[in-house]
From TrEMBL:
Active-site annotation: 89 (acyl-thioester intermediate), 345 (proton acceptor), 375 (proton acceptor)
GO MF annotations, alphabetized: acetyl-CoA C-acyltransferase activity
Thiolase N-terminal domain boundaries: 5-258
Keywords per UniProt: Acyltransferase, Transferase
Protein's recorded name: Acetyl-CoA acetyltransferase
Gene3D superfamilies tied to this protein: 3.40.47.10
Residues annotated as domain Thiolase C-terminal: 266-388
Species whose genome carries this gene: Tepidicaulis marinus
Pfam families listed in its UniProt record: Thiolase_C, Thiolase_N
Keyword Acyltransferase: yes
Record-stated family: Belongs to the thiolase-like superfamily. Thiolase family.
């Protein structure tokens, strides 16, 4: 079978809402990542056949094909086409799947899969909050409302439903949130992110500086402090401290086929071993990574213990904890450098962000197989298995 190889992976450090990245237009932020991937590989950018950009909030500054705008903002050749993908939180993980499929087909040789989200400048939910009148402009169509009467799709409610369904206590959620910060702090202090983060210049109160540390990490986090955060819903179990942080950021990977790998003398970081996407219950919504992982492993002829590291997006702490319970995965292999609770979740940028971290973590720990999955709005999940080379 034809192969797809990751030859470069890069991401910006996350920025808090109204934080250090607030001055960056999302097209420019994504463009900076595109330029960095070209720099890392030293290829002629004219060899890039396509750019596939994940983005959820495709409105305002992220409208009108943010992928193409990022190519133009980067100063790359106008001959490079681009498109924008929305599979909700999995948008740029789907970009990776599309890019890999393109080069494996042989119709393309070199594709960049990337993602971006400026949740400061394009607030979450903006495309769905445009004025609606007389039933027009509401994303749930009449036929959808017939199928799901009196249902308000909500990721937060889905996360609470998962905590209850899988019997995950408030204490377990709090401990997981604390662990995310602990691991992110340890990774940052050990330099584990140094090779994957593209430092970008930002304006601060003290003047210009290079932004290279994930702004969401709470270096003073304590378990007692997390336990003291109020619940988001009366009678619930989740808090802001056990939910992903609103985040600005961009990430990308360059993917090539074997012919291009040899022709250009590129060094592969990893090989795409398997790709799966599944759909599930859109009401509980965030559960799909569980059957998705089971399906991916079965189709790949692998067992969960064959995987050395897992990246499961921490949209809410109940998601990876339920995933651990149902898959029997080793928690010591999960999100070893922290996750979105500490590092932030830039929606459409998170898929490429997690992949960038996974590829580098496999290299740093001299491990072989990595699995990435994330819950997605509408009850979807992507699963990607890679082999470090």
């Amino acid at each position: 079978m034809a192969e797809a190889y990751i030859v470069a992976a890069s991401r910006t450090a996350g920025g808090r809402r109204d934080g250090k990245l607030k001055g960056w237009h999302p097209a420019d932020l994504a463009g900076a990542v595109l330029k960095d991937l070209v720099k890392k590989t030293d290829i002629d950018p004219a060899r890039i056949d396509d750019v596939i950009m994940g983005c959820v909030g495709q409105a305002g500054e992220q409208a009108v094909n943010i992928g193409r705008n990022a190519v133009l903002a980067a100063g790359l050749p106008e001959s490079i086409p681009a498109t924008s993908v929305d599979r909700q939180c999995g948008s740029s993980q789907q970009s990776i799947h599309f890019a890999a499929q393109a080069v494996m087909s042989g119709f393309m040789d070199c594709v960049i899969a990337a993602g971006v989200e400026s949740m400061t400048r394009v607030p979450m939910g903006l495309p769905a909050s445009l004025p609606a009148k007389n039933g027009f402009g509401v994303y749930m169509s009449p036929e959808m409302q017939k199928r799901y009467p009196d249902i308000q799709f909500s990721q937060f409610m889905g996360a609470e439903m998962m905590a209850k369904k899988y019997d995950i206590s408030r204490d377990e959620l709090d401990e997981f949130g604390y662990r995310s910060h602990q691991r992110a702090i340890a990774a940052t202090q050990a330099g584990a992110f140094d090779d994957e983060i593209l430092a970008v210049e930002v304006e601060t109160e003290n003047g210009k500086e290079m932004h290279k540390v994930d702004e969401g990490i709470r270096f003073d986090a304590s378990l007692d402090g997390i336990k003291g955060v109020k619940l988001l819903a009366e009678g619930g179990r989740l808090t802001a401290a056990t939910s992903s942080q609103i985040c600005d950021g961009s990430a990308g990977v360059m993917i090539v086929n074997e012919k291009t790998l040899k022709e250009l003398g590129l060094t592969p970081m990893a090989r795409i071993h398997h790709m799966t996407v599944v759909g599930g219950d859109p009401i509980i919504m965030l559960e799909a990574p569980i059957p998705g992982t089971q399906k991916a492993l079965q189709k790949a002829g692998m067992k969960i213990d064959d995987i050395d590291l897992y990246e499961v997006n921490e949209a809410f702490a109940s998601v990876p904890l339920a995933w651990l319970k149902e898959t029997g995965a080793d928690p010591e292999k999960l999100n070893v450098n922290g996750g979105a609770i500490a590092l932030g979740h830039p929606l459409g940028g998170s898929g490429a962000k997690l992949m960038t971290t996974l590829v580098h973590a496999l290299k740093n720990q001299n491990k072989r197989y990595g699995l990435q999955t994330m819950c997605e709005g509408g009850g979807l999940a992507n699963v990607t298995i890679i082999e470090r080379l």
